[in-house]
Amino acid sequence: MGLAGAADAQIIETAGSRALGMGGAFVAVASDSSATWWNPAGLAAGPFVDFALARNLVEATEQLPAWRNKTSWFALGTPALGLGYYRFRITEIQPPSSTGQAGAGREDERVTVPVRSLAVSQMGISVVRTLVSGVHVGTTLKRLRGTVRDSREDSLAPVSDLLATGEALDGGDAEGRFDLDVGVMAVAGPVRVGAVVRNVREPEFVLAGSTSDDPSTRFRLEKQIRAGAAFDPAAAGGFPLTVAFDMDMRAYATPTGDRRMIAFGAEHWLLGRRIGVRAGGRVNTVGVRERIATAGLSVAAGGGLYLDGHVARGGSVDERGWGLAARVSF
Q1: pLDDT at 29
Q2: Residues whose CB falls within 8 Å of the CB of residue 83, separated by 6 or more in sequence, listed in order
């Protein structure tokens, strides 16, 4: 069954712990294990070992079109090598493809909406190389296994129920795909500059049971190119406040329209790095003019263990999200 008007909808703000509390301004900051998602080159400037176990949610559910990205992940990062496993479920609902059927009664006028869901497990290995002092490149080689499923549901049902229905869809065989991300990071004292290209090969998954070439039966993880800069005085013995800025270099499609974000954020550590506070935001510069604000918190629980959390809210499509992570770093 094909879906009219379906759109692809993996966003870079799908996963992370510190990153999402900083509004997604993290490409030049990434140095912990979440660099396996945000910028593999950043691992070279990170701690000796960083391990994280986390869960994230980001969604826009107030009206159609609507979408929800759920991610569970764990990752291990060292200065030379990273390992990451990400399992995400992307569910989206498009508006009805027709305006209704002729008839006098409410039931006669009822139409259906297309619901589509992509379930993917991603295993990746990140390899880092230093070109010259302070300049690093990294590659994450990814093996993905995904299944696209769809249905048509009652257009009068609540959006939250429609999304829950999409998440519960099962059946179909998983397809395997290989892909890679490529990143670069330059560090000079307190200044950091980075860039990443994600989903280089733009892996595509076909609707379970479909043999059609119709684009609406396919779900493609679009290439994303993002650059960023950060200033971290603590790296030069100064005040422990990091400020960062990111920009998408090309737009990519989501169910609510094209997306090309400018993100900004800050992170400040208190009480001898026992408490970390973050804030940030991002603005969509194309399509729907979304503006999302974020806040995050880390608490050191001893023995190198940190508990991270964040919330996000805002935008004309009412995008919102949250995340929790347990992270060991030393």
Answers
A1: 97
A2: 36, 75, 76, 124, 125, 126
- The values of phi and psi at residue 15, to 5°, are -135, 155
Give residue 216's pLDDT.
Answer: 67
User: How far is 298 from 296, CA to CA, in rounded Å?
Assistant: 7
Alpha-carbon span 326 to 77, nearest angstrom: 14
3's CB contacts (< 8 A; 6+ apart) are: 94, 114, 116, 150, 216, 217
DSSP 8-state assignment for residue 103: -
Q: Is the pLDDT of residue 132 over 70?
A: yes
Helices (H) and strands (E) in the chain, counts: 4, 18
Lowest mean pLDDT among 17-21, 22-26, 93-97, 164-168: 93-97
Q: How many other CB atoms sit within 10 Å of the CB of residue 44?
A: 21
- For residues 298-326, average pLDDT: 94
| Rounded Cα distance, 310 and 204, in Å | 31
Please state the length of the chain.
330
Reported as half-sphere exposure (CB side, CA atoms, 13 A), residue 8 has a value of 22
Q: Compute the distance between CA of residue 214 and CA of residue 3 in angstroms, rounded to an integer.
A: 9
- Grouping H, G, I as helix, E, B as strand and the rest as coil, residue 28 is coil
Looking at residues 108-123, what average pLDDT do you find?
Answer: 86
What's the rounded Cα separation, in Å, for the pair 62 and 240? 38
Unique residue bearing structure tokens 């093996």? 143
DSSP states along 244-302: EEEEESS-EEETTEEE-EEEEEEEEEETTTTEEEEEEEEEE-SSS--EEEEEEEEEEEE
| C-alpha–C-alpha distance, residues 17 and 274, integer Å | 16
309 phi and psi angles, rounded to 5 deg: -150, 155
Q: Which residues contact 282 (CB under 8 A, 6 or more apart)?
A: 13, 23, 24, 25, 261, 262, 263, 264, 290, 291, 292, 294
DSSP 166: H
